[in-house]
Specification:
Low-confidence stretches: 1-13
Mean pLDDT: 79
Number of domains: 1
Shape: flat
Distance between the termini: 20 Å
Largest sheet: 3 strands, antiparallel
Number of helices: 2
Structural class: alpha+beta
Strand content: 35-45%
Strand order of the largest sheet: 1-2-3
Length: 90
């Protein structure tokens, strides 16, 4: 695992236009219809709801969707993980 200092991360963020420092949110602060939140949560359970191959040119690409029960000390939510996110969650 590569270690990067906090100072190094902020320099990386400054060098790329459009990036900003993440503001962390708790589950109880989430509201319907909003997006772009950064949370630190624990995965309680996962359930694969869709997994199928899709022809995308010469390669077959997997499409995966999982529902994940995640939470912190303020509450629990269902997070819908898609494709690469499913690998991280499962």
């Amino acid at each position: 695992m590569q270690k990067t200092s906090i100072q190094g991360l902020s320099k990386m963020a400054e060098s790329k236009p459009g990036l900003r420092k993440p503001t962390f949110t708790k589950v109880d602060q989430l509201r319907p219809g909003t997006s772009g939140h950064t949370l630190t949560v624990k995965v309680v359970s996962t359930k694969m709801v869709l997994q199928k191959g899709r022809a995308d040119g010469p390669q077959v690409r997997q499409m995966r969707i999982a529902e994940c029960l995640v939470g912190d000390e303020t509450g629990l939510i269902i997070f819908t993980a898609r494709n690469d996110q499913v690998t991280v969650q499962v």
